[in-house]
Amino acid sequence: MDYLKTALPSQIMSERGSNLVVINPGSANVRIGLASQDTPFNIPHCIARHTKQVPRRNVQDQMLNSQITTAQHMEREKAYDVIASILKIPFLDEEAPSNAFPRKMGRVDGHNPHIIRKDLPFSWTNVYEVVSMSSALETSSKDVTSESLDPKEDTDSKELHLSERKFREFICGEEALRISPAEPYCLNRPIRRGHLNISQHYSMQQVLEDLHTIWDWILVEKLHIPRNERNMYSAVLVLPETFDNREIKEMLSLVLQGLCFGSAVVHQEGLAAVFGNGLSTACVVNIGSQVTSLICIEDGGALPTTVKTLPFGGEDISRCLLWTQRHHQTWPQIRTDILTKPIDLLMLNQLKETYCEIKEGEHEAVAVVHSYEDRAPAGSHKTRLTALNVPPMGLFYPTLLVPDVYPPPPRTWFNDYEDMLEEPWHMEYTRPDTFYPNVGGGIPMWESYPIFATKPKREEKVGLAEAISNCILSTGRIDIQRKLFCSIQLTGGVALTNGLVSALEERVLHAIPPNEAIDTVEVLQSRMNPTFVPWKGGAILGVLDLGRDAWINREDWIQNGIHVGSNRKYKDSYYIQAQAMCYLNS
């Protein structure tokens, strides 16, 4: 302890964090890095595998239901008009179609380097690799070419090299999203909407294998930690509140048994976010790419009854941006399909991050939209985008955002999970407003599945402001409520949206019932990029945990698991403190 009092914080992180790998997995991205780093690698959480299957799907999630019903479409249009009246812009049907064509004619402002950089197109990923024999032939052919000026001989040599190329077995990260649909690859996303993406078409074994391959690739290629040295490293898993115990157990097995780390510990994402910003009490609102989760932290401890999860995030705002522009006829006549062409989603995310903000009045911008056809170079289309302040308002009016419906896991997944639960946990912690299966509510990803027919419905259509208000008021104590309403912490990439903080403060204040003696709402400023705050908090928790009472050794996990009564629990994780970790690995 004397060391901690005298050493500088940067010195402690550098010395004690050099062998700690912090992993913060999300639905769209995974953040991995050494605790000694200032920021982690933020890599798209996906993998594309070469396939010879015919007929093939170039995206595993093509089986999901992305069709919008008539009722959903009407609700979306109604939500647009409500938002339009608040932002003081024309209603959805007020704009004359004749105005659409002239508005599309625009010139990109060449004096804004930020926008110009964002307007650069993506390039297709090179899916080929060159075998070592071809490399050797290339070296020898260069020697021959240097001595011979025969162009025919040089052409034959190039054809030889092309014939030696073969498809890469798998491609991870952003490169996987930039693969042309014409290439023989299938894109897999192992985590979707805050849960393992297990379905009848994507088995648990394949999901875990894909997670292992992605993480192993990052450890080797980005962090340069080979497999034979990982027993000297420890892993800090910063996991979202959406994960259930079965999923946490699989993550631990992956890290300790699959990736061969010497030891590991699990921390909650919400709690880690508080430590990442140097706080002890806050209402943490994590707006991710596909899921928004809320939890209250008091004096460094999570309040389990406050957990709420909303089934929308940043990607839904991007999808809404596309719908808005198509409705106003400002989108070019190009084939934009974010389901079968993930590169289009990359483009839409960039447009959203660059141009979308929350403010009153009409908000338009001239932008360059790109079209990506099979293997062809990207086409550029100048257009004037309109109503750019509407999509982010979908956070407060979620009927504007129509999430995709994902196929359910097989029944064996739920049966296995039920066998791992203990009755005392049911009795002590009931959370009717969460996504956790069999604990008072269903999972929105699979809510239409017959197995959940008898489960009560969740607050699906509750907006972000109402959810925050309900989350804080559920603490039941006026003193902590006043403290939390003045300590709202936003994390996730969407938190960077201009105008979101003031809009959130205003709407949360109006969402508080008039009989509550609360008149102040404040969103705290983040000390760093809100995308990386939970990861940084995990790094701090890992470095400062000197006793390591909650850490699990690789040998203990593989041989014995963690037994009831062993007093080994995941620290700072309420849903695992409730049961004494009775997982047994057979």
From TrEMBL:
Pfam families: Actin. SMART domains: ACTIN. InterPro entries: Actin (IPR004000), ATPase_NBD (IPR043129). SUPFAM superfamilies: Actin-like ATPase domain. CDD domains: ASKHA_NBD_Arp8-like. Belongs to the actin family. ARP8 subfamily. PANTHER family: ACTIN. This is Actin-related protein 9. It comes from Arachis hypogaea.
